[in-house]
Specification:
The chain is built from 17 helices and 4 strands. 73% of the residues lie in helices and 2% in strands. Strand 3 and strand 4 form a beta hairpin. The longest helix has 45 residues. By secondary structure, it is an all-alpha fold.
Amino acid sequence: MDNILTSVILGITLFFMIFGVLFGLKRGAFRSTVRLITLGIGIAITWFARKAYVSAVMALEFEGESINSMLEEAAAEAGALSGLIGALLESLLTVVLFIAVMLVLKLITAVIFFIVGFFLPKPSKRGVGALVGLLQGALIAFCICAPLNGLLCNCAQLLGTLSQPIGGEVILPAEDIAEMKKNGIDFEAYADSAIAKAYSALGNGFYTALASSETEDGESISIAAVTEVAEAGVKLAGAVESISNIDMSSGITAENREELRDAFKELDEIKNGMSDEALGTINTMISTLVGEAAGSEELPPALVESLENLNFAEISFEAEGNLVLDFMDYAESGTESGVTISNLVNDLAESTLVLPLISEMASSEEGTIELPEAEKAEVEAAIDNLADESKKQTLRDLFGIQ
C-alpha cells in the first residue's frame, strides 16, 4: 500500500498549485497580483496574531472548564516538568490552529476578492497571471504543509526513539509500527521522501518558530527540540547502561579501561550531535528537575547548586571519564601510576561533574582525601595557582588543607 502521509502532503501541494495556475489564467496578471497581495497580507496577520487567537481558543470553556485548564491538568502529571509539557502542548495547539486559520483565511480572502473583482480591470496577460497564480498556490501550500511536514518528521523521529529498548523495555513494540505501515501510515518512509526533504529544507525555520512557546520562566521550548532531546536521551541512557555493564570486578585493566574510554567518547558524540536549541532545552529540564529536588533529601544542597549552574553543552564526558580513571589509578598506585597529584588537582578544577560528586561524598562522610605529608605542599601550591576562588575552597576542603 502507498504511504498515505506522502500522498496527503503531495496531494495538498499539487491541489493548491494546479488550482493557482487555473485561477491565474482566468484572472489575468493584474487580478492575480492583487489576489497575491491580499493573500500575503492575510498570512502576515495570521502569523503575527497567532498568540492572540491561540489565547482566545485556550480560554474557551467546555462543561465549565477551559481548554487551558485541561492542558494544565494533563501537563501536571509530568510533575516538575509540567511547565515544559504545558509549553509543548501550547506549541502543538499553535501549529494546528495556524493551519486551520490559514484554511479559513483562504476562503475569506477569496470572498473579499470576488467582491473587489467587480471593480478591477478585465483579465489580460493570462500567461503572466498563471505564473502569479502558481506562486500564490505554492505560498498557500507552503504555509499549510511546512508545519504539517515538521510534525510528521518529528513523529517519525519520536516513533524511532520509542521503538528503542530503554532499560530492557520497549515502549512501542516493532509489531505496532509494522501494523501502522501495513495500513499505509509509514512516518519513517515519509521523512525519507523527496517531498519531506524539500519542505524540511525550505520550511524548518518557519516550523520551528511556529512550534515554539515559552515556559513560565521565559525559557523557549519547541516541539523539534523536545523530540531531539528524547532521541538523545535514549541514546545517552544506552551509553550509560553500557558503562554499568563493564566488568570492573578485577579493578582497572587494560581491557575495561578502553571500554570505559569508548563509552565516554560515545556520550560526547551524542551530545555534540545535538543542536544548540536541544542543548538549551536539556539545561532547562535539568534546572527544573534540580529545582524541584532542592530542599528535599533527594539531592544534597551543595550538589543542587552545582547542577543548577551546569551547562550540558560544556561537559566533556571523555575528560570526566579520564579524570575518574586517573583518580582510581592514583588511589591504587600513587605516583607510580604516572598520575601526578598536581595534574589531578588541575583536572579536578576543570571538572563539572566529578568534582561536585567527590566533594559531596567527602562532606557527607565527614571526611577528606588523605594525603601523604610529602604531597600536601604540592597540592596546596597547585590549588593556590587556580583563578576560581570557589573551586580553590572546594579543593582545600576536599584535601583537608586549611
